[in-house]
């Protein structure tokens, strides 16, 4: 029997679940059972959990349908638990280092307690320092175990379920389970405290709670707010049936109604039925108010008195007066000095143009990537829309004939941004762009994440120092309505990196459609345009940006590589777009394609790819052509930037660590051999999941034409896709 069973519900948190599970399995105290609770065997989190179960016998995966909610998931975990003590951990929170060792030591000191209440930290993972909430555990708790009557203020009501350790036999004997419905922590905490005989306190944070940026589901408007009163009634009725003395029922009553009054004082949480909520709360208040109860001081005491009297009108008036005072300060005019901002503010008051779509790629670098592919498909499928592409001054020449554009920062660009019904970008629009009600923002992204992105960069000092405010970044994320994904790995990582309330569209990347629609004639034309000599093997070398470098460093002597790899090898050099200065620095055997606007064209022209950690490998894999990873500084890169998986363990092809190894795999042909094909097949299965040549069509139909998901073209299975043909023979004799 393990000492601890840790139950981890995972609904809606697949992207961060691995961090929660790692925080448990990485504990110095290892006598444990870890129970991830997943929606179903085919749910995204189940795949993550199954991987852990396959590697560690302490992991027991159980399933609970989403319809059973959080309470059902925790109860399912309890049924599977075999540990002496139980802990609960939300799937996007962390068990702090040393937590189990500290809990074990404290439980040994206070042997036999039913509940050990603990402290916890709150820490937004994108910005800010961890802090322990004050006042949750009374300051004067006895040093050892004690009866609840000795510390009546410790009711468990304001504490989350994961801020305590529970003796499993106690829960079983008292038949305690999480009550159905919302606000289950309130019901659970109250019922457990009423039933407990001996409790103790651990003054150490055990869990790091990472609040969701969207806020708790329990603080959102809706009819589920009424279930708070169900939980309150359940706890107060159980306390009355247990015959608790007045010194215990008083603090319990106050803490339950502190939660009730927080909801009652926010009628916007109950857009319909606020009066009914207040009246039922008033009846519960009068029914369960302890004899001799003394109302609190101050404004809270006024609320108590009005609730006891059922004075709904006066209660609403009290809140209205307070809001009016705060609103006066918010209505003070803000100075605007920039003329374009004034015009933008004026345009924001004009009606949205339902047929206007605005596109931008790479902060205005030109007509490229997913926005360009969507724009082109929209001209075909939604010709009634007026499409405007935003570009930097000097990049107008990158636009195909007939594409309407506006220069970023110009008066016209602000006008179309203010009035567009659809805004489509692969990065982010400027800080000052306002998300208007009724407008639709589509974030297309521009790669599959190997390196950490968004708020996950906050723990890597080199990249965090260059990223600016993560809070401001997340303010831009709040504008997104849709976010595009090309595989389930990306879906989970976007959820982690850019937490928000947007809808994930697992449709593939529109820019990759061409890898399945291009013909042999297209490939030959592109090679001629790039200057690739006929009959040569074109190797695309595309290294990524390194945050710890100050400029472009190729990392490889390309002339020496060409000489060592073979006479027929030429290199297409494509530096990261950060280093595109519009020039060319090629030679007879090195063709600089950094300034070429279409990464897709460059990939189609290449017979093989050499890269380090660039996301281009995920896109190129769609072509099913050889990929070699040149990883001369993997350990440094992993430590300075952070990565989402170990590329060395799951590469898309052979891995070379030195220039000699890299040249050798081309010289002997193994770069395209059986082992390389085997690795590439596994990589494609995982990361080319939704790219099938029809991604742009799915996006246009769903986002711009409003078609339902079930009406969209289904994703073609990988085995049935036919990539564009390569120009050269891949395996040399």
Report on this model:
With 733 residues, this protein is α/β, with parallel strands linked by helices. The chain has 26 helices and 21 strands. It has an 8-stranded mixed sheet with strand order 3-2-1-4-7-6-8-5, with helices on both faces. Strands 11-10-9-12-13-14-15 form a 7-stranded parallel sheet, sandwiched between helices. It has a 6-stranded parallel sheet with strand order 18-17-16-19-20-21, sandwiched between helices. Strand 20, helix 23 and strand 21 (654-656) form a beta-alpha-beta unit. The chain is globular, with a radius of gyration of 30 Å. The chain starts with a strand and ends in a 29-residue tail after the last helix. 45% of the residues are buried. Mean pLDDT is 89; it is low at 324-337, 577-584 and 729-733.
List the helices and strands and how they pair.
Layout: E1 4-9, H1 14-25, E2 32-38, H2 44-55, E3 62-63, H3 69-80, E4 85-88, E5 94-95, H4 99-109, E6 115-122, E7 164-167, H5 168-173, H6 184-195, E8 199-209, H7 227-241, H8 246-264, H9 274-288, H10 298-309, H11 312-330, H12 339-348, E9 353-360, H13 369-381, E10 386-391, E11 405-407, H14 411-419, E12 420-425, E13 440-443, H15 461-467, H16 470-477, E14 482-485, H17 488-497, E15 503-506, H18 514-517, H19 520-530, E16 537-542, H20 558-565, E17 569-573, E18 590-592, H21 599-605, E19 608-611, H22 616-620, E20 627-630, H23 634-641, E21 654-656, H24 659-667, H25 674-687, H26 695-704
Helix pairs in contact: 1-2, 6-7, 7-8, 7-9, 8-9, 12-14, 13-26, 19-21, 20-24
């Amino acid at each position: 029997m393990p000492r601890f069973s840790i139950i981890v519900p995972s609904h809606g948190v697949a992207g961060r679940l691995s961090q929660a599970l790692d925080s448990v399995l990485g504990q110095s105290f290892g006598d444990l059972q870890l129970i991830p609770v997943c929606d179903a065997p085919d749910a995204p989190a189940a795949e993550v959990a199954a991987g852990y179960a396959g590697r560690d016998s302490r992991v027991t995966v159980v399933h609970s349908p989403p319809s059973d909610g959080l309470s059902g998931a925790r109860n399912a975990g309890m049924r599977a638990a075999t540990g002496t003590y139980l802990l609960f951990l939300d799937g996007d929170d962390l068990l702090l280092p040393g937590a189990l060792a500290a809990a074990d030591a404290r439980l040994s000191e206070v042997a036999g307690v039913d509940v050990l209440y603990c402290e916890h930290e709150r820490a937004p993972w994108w910005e800010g320092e961890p802090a322990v909430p004050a006042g949750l555990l009374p300051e004067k708790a006895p040093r050892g175990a004690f009866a609840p009557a000795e510390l009546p203020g410790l009711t468990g009501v304001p504490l989350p379920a994961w801020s305590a350790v529970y003796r499993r036999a106690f829960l079983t004997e008292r038949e305690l389970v999480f009550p159905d419905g919302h606000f289950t922590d309130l019901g659970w905490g109250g019922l457990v405290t009423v039933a407990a005989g001996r409790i103790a306190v651990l003054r150490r944070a055990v869990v790091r709670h990472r609040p969701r940026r969207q806020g708790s589901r329990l603080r959102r408007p809706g009819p589920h707010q009424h279930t708070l009163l169900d939980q309150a009634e359940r706890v107060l009725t159980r306390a009355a049936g247990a015959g608790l003395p007045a010194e215990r029922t008083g603090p319990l009553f106050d803490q339950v109604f502190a939660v009730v009054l927080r909801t009652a004082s926010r009628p916007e949480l109950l857009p319909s039925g606020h009066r009914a909520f207040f009246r039922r709360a008033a009846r519960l208040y009068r029914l369960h108010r302890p004899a001799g109860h003394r109302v609190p001081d101050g404004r809270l005491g006024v609320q108590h008195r009005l609730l006891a009297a059922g004075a709904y009108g006066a209660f609403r008036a009290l809140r209205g007066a307070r809001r009016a005072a705060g609103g006066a300060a918010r209505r003070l005019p803000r100075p605007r000095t920039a003329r374009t901002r004034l015009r933008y503010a004026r345009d924001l008051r004009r009606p949205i143009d339902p047929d206007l779509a605005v596109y931008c790629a790479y902060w205005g670098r030109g007509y490229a990537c997913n926005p360009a592919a969507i724009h082109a498909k929209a001209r075909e499928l939604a010709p009634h829309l007026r499409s405007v592409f935003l570009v930097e001054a000097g990049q107008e020449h990158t636009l195909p004939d007939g594409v309407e554009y506006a220069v970023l920062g110009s008066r016209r660009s602000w006008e179309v941004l203010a009035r567009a019904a659809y805004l489509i970008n692969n990065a982010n629009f400027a800080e000052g762009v306002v998300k208007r009600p009724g407008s639709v923002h589509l974030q297309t992204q521009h790669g599959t994440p190997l390196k950490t992105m968004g708020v996950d960069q906050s723990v890597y000092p080199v990249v965090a120092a260059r990223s600016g405010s993560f809070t401001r970044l997340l303010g831009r994320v709040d504008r997104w309505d849709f976010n595009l994904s090309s595989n389930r790995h990306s879906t989970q990582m976007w959820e982690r990196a850019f937490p928000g309330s947007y809808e994930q569209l697992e449709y593939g990347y529109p820019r990759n459609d061409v890898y399945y629609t291009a013909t042999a004639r297209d490939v030959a034309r592109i090679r001629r345009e790039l200057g690739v000599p006929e009959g040569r093997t074109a190797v695309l070398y595309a290294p990524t940006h390194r945050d710890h470098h100050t400029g472009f460093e190729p990392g490889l002597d390309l002339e020496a590589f060409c000489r060592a790899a073979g006479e027929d090898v030429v290199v297409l050099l494509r530096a990261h777009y950060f280093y595109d200065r519009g020039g060319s620095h090629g030679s007879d055997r090195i063709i600089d394609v950094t300034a070429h606007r279409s990464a897709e064209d460059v990939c189609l022209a290449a017979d093989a790819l050499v890269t380090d950690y660039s996301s281009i490998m995920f896109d190129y894999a769609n072509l099913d052509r050889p990929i070699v990873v040149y990883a001369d500084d993997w350990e440094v890169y992993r430590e300075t930037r952070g990565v989402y998986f170990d590329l060395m363990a799951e590469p898309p092809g052979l891995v070379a660590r030195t220039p000699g190894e890299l040249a050798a795999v081309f010289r002997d042909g193994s770069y395209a051999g059986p082992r390389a094909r085997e690795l590439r097949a596994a990589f494609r299965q995982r990361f080319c999941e939704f790219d099938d040549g029809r991604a742009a069509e799915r996006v246009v139909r769903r986002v711009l034409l409003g078609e339902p998901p079930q009406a969209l073209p289904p994703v073609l299975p990988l085995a049935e896709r036919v990539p564009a043909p390569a120009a050269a023979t891949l395996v040399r004799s």
